[in-house]
C-alpha cells in the first residue's frame, strides 16, 4: 500500500541523513516514518532506527525508550534480526554509561543471534563496538582480538567501508598503547 511505501521512503531518507551527519533532518524523516500506518515489523525497525539515532546524538534516555519499544514489538512478533539490533544498541548505551558487564551481556546475545542469522556485516560492526568497549576499559589485548575478527570478516566480505572503520579503531588502539609507528600505519590506511 502507498502509506507503507512512503513510510519506507521516509525511513530510508532518515538513514541517509543519519550517515551524512544531518541528525535533525534524520530525526524528522524517521519520526514521519514512524507516524505512518506501518506493519509491526516496519514499526519495530523504525523505532530501532530512531533509538540508534539518539545513541549517535548522545541522548541515551531517549534512545533507551525507543529501543525498548522496538524490542517489545520485535519480541512479540519474533523478529530475530531486530531483536539482535536492539541488544546491540543496548550494549552500545551501556558501554557509553561505563556499565561494561551489562554491555558485554547484551553484546553476547546480539552476537549469537547475528551469527545464527548470517548477518555478517552487522557482526563486523558489533565486533568493532566490542573492541571499542574493551579499549574504553583499557583492555587492549581483548580490543585487538575483536578488531582482528572484524578485519578478517570484512576482508572475506570485501566491504571497504567497514575495513576503513576497523583501520581507524586499530589506529586508536595502537595510539593508546603507545605504538605510534603502527598507529601511523593504520591512520594512513584509514585516510588512504
Note the main sheet.
none
Rg is 17 Å
Share of residues in strands? under 5%
- Residue stretches low in confidence (pLDDT < 50, at least 5 long) are none
Characteristic key phrases:
10 helices, globular, mainly alpha, 192 residues
Structural features, described:
With 192 residues, the protein is an all-alpha fold. Helix content is 87%, strand content 0%. The chain has 10 helices and no strands. The protein has helices at 2-19, 23-35, 40-57, 60-77, 80-96, 100-117, 120-136, 140-157, 160-177, 180-191. The longest helix has 18 residues, at 2-19. It is globular and about 55 Å long.
Brief sketch in words of this structure:
It contains ten helices and no strands.
Set down the secondary structure blueprint:
Layout: H1 2-19, H2 23-35, H3 40-57, H4 60-77, H5 80-96, H6 100-117, H7 120-136, H8 140-157, H9 160-177, H10 180-191
Amino acid at each position: 500500500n502507498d502509506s507503507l511505501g512512503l513510510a519506507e521512503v521516509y525511513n530510508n531518507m532518515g538513514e541517509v541523513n543519519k550517515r551524512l551527519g544531518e541528525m535533525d533532518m534524520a530525526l524528522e524523516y524517521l519520526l514521519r516514518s514512524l507516524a505512518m500506518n506501518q506493519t509491526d515489523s516496519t514499526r519495530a525497525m523504525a523505532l530501532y532506527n530512531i533509538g540508534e539515532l539518539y545513541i549517535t546524538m548522545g541522548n541515551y534516555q531517549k534512545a533507551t525508550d525507543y529501543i525498548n519499544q522496538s524490542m517489545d514489538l520485535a519480541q512479540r512478533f519474533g523478529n530475530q534480526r531486530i531483536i539482535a539490533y536492539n541488544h546491540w544498541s543496548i550494549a552500545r548505551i551501556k558501554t557509553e554509561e561505563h556499565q561494561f558487564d551489562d554491555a558485554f551481556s547484551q553484546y553476547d546475545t546480539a552476537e549469537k543471534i547475528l551469527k545464527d542469522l548470517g548477518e555478517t556485516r552487522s557482526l563486523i560492526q558489533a565486533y568493532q563496538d566490542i573492541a571499542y568497549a574493551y579499549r574504553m576499559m583499557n583492555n587492549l589485548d581483548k580490543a585487538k582480538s575483536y578488531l582482528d575478527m572484524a578485519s578478517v570478516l570484512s576482508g572475506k566480505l570485501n566491504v571497504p567501508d567497514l575495513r576503513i572503520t576497523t583501520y581507524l579503531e586499530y589506529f586508536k588502539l595502537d595510539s593508546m598503547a603507545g605504538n605510534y609507528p603502527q598507529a601511523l600505519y593504520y591512520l594512513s590506511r584509514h585516510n588512504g
